[in-house]
Write a structure and sequence with these properties.
Blueprint lengths: L1 H19 L6 H5 L2 E4 L2 E4 L3 E3 H4 E4 L2 H8 L2 E4 L6 E5 H9 L9 E3 L3 E6 L6 H16 L3 E10 L9 E6 L7 E11 L2 E21 L14 E7 L11 H4 L3 E2 L14 E2 L9 E8 L2 E9 L8 E6 L5 E8 L2 E4 L2
Parallel strand pairs: 1-7, 2-8, 16-20
Antiparallel strand pairs: 1-4, 3-5, 6-8, 9-12, 10-11, 11-12, 12-13, 14-15, 16-17, 17-18, 18-19, 19-20
Amino acid sequence: MVLKDKYNIIIFFTFILVVFGAGSINSKETKKISINVSPSALVNSREYFLGDIAKIQGPDIIKDQIEKIYIGFSPSLGKIRTISKKQITAKIKSVSWLPYDVKITVPESVIIKRASQFLCEQQLKEIYINNVKQRLKNNDFKIRDFKVRGTELYPLGEINFTISSGNIKPIKKTSFYLNVNVNGKKCGRIILSGWVDIFDNVVCFKNSFKRGHIIKDSDLFIKKLNISLIPNNYIKNLNYAVGMCVKRNVKSKDCLNKNILENPPLIKKGDIVKLIANKGNLRIKTTGIAIRNGKLNDQITVKNISSKKIVSGKIIEKGIVNIFF
């Protein structure tokens, strides 16, 4: 046993001389070396070493190497693992160069906990809001039903994010990916989602109107509405709708959109219209009575006043129909 201890000391000092040079370390200095293992320790890497769980005293040249003695794998993030005195002592004494007279103190068991951090939901919501704000520019908006999916515990370190949101305008239910990086290393990806209400000026009807009503300026007013709750193609400019007619009955305070508007008829039922018929070099003109309404390029039927016949033709301008032969 004595021979073995002497052999270990020789190996230890040989190691020191090779690695650190020929600086002398006497036996009094080695007797000052002590290893005091804590009953619990917080570690922040996949593997942990003696320096992570113990307080080591001694000359710096030796202390630095003792701290690097490998103990084992750390538990998962946020988890704990219990290591027995026997396991830790065996790890320490397996190092052949360690002096035999080093004082080692180890509790009956040591609790190892892996350090971790979590993401604050309020911080993630601010990231979501700022991203929406940048993409909407000057639009008024509100966020509701905000949710986070895929979040987990992350290693300690400086966290930053990279966003993958595409170029689609955020409105109604909007989601995007957020890459989570710790100390510059990607550690996961989460999904941020929410409902985006956008508020904009919308043209609305002051009163109810029947189908075919031709819109006047006095029929309309502008109101700020949540456009995520109304049909697309809403109208913002009063002048766009003035002079057009509605395709269906509308109610007071209904908002205007392009789908319910059409150009007014150039010819109305009962109008006296000019009929033009072309055949080769022959051009015939007469008059007729429109049997129904029609817009530009519509095909309508008219009654020839002279012949009393019903003929069809295409509206080419207001009050003029080109008759088909």
